[in-house]
Write a structure and sequence with these properties.
alpha+beta
Length: 151
């Protein structure tokens, strides 16, 4: 059985463990080094971190960012980032559940749309997002900071 909720301060170690599975090549900070950033994330009125639990442990997460906006009748838009489920528990609906909670949160904040991007090209990953009701549409572009190579 799973439960979905907003992340809290005590969830940082579990979130970092999930992020190690999201981008295995990245160096992640330890919980003590990440604590200040985590606290900023949890106290931001523009950001929320959603988690799904499985048997009492955090098993999936995503970050939702709500952006104020002057178009679309001043309705905000939202971005979802850092979507990951524990590898051993994939296929149980935890990722879909956590994304649905984030989308519901965005719509409760009157967002006119929710967007996400993925760098994955695996058809199963793309199919997963489509099963979460996302539609392919716009073309995404990005610029990465050349002075800050990925760690």
């Amino acid at each position: 059985m799973s439960a979905v909720r907003l992340a809290g301060a005590a969830d940082l170690p579990a979130i970092l463990a999930l992020y190690a599975q999201l981008s295995p090549g990245d160096l992640l900070p330890d919980a003590i080094a990440a604590e200040a950033t985590w606290n900023r994330m949890l106290t931001s009125d523009m950001m929320s971190v959603h988690v799904a639990e499985f048997e009492g442990a955090v098993a999936a997460t995503c970050v939702l960012i709500v952006v104020p906006n002057l178009t679309r009748n001043q309705r905000p838009f939202a971005l979802i980032e850092n979507v990951v489920s524990a590898a051993a528990l994939r296929g149980r609906g935890l990722g879909k559940t956590v994304i649905q909670a984030a989308v519901a949160h965005a719509f409760s904040r009157d967002c006119y749309k929710v967007m996400l991007m993925t760098g994955r090209s695996d058809p199963a990953v793309l199919g997963f997002y489509e099963a979460c009701s996302f539609q392919r549409g716009k073309t995404a572009f990005q610029i990465r900071n050349p002075a800050q190579p990925p760690r």
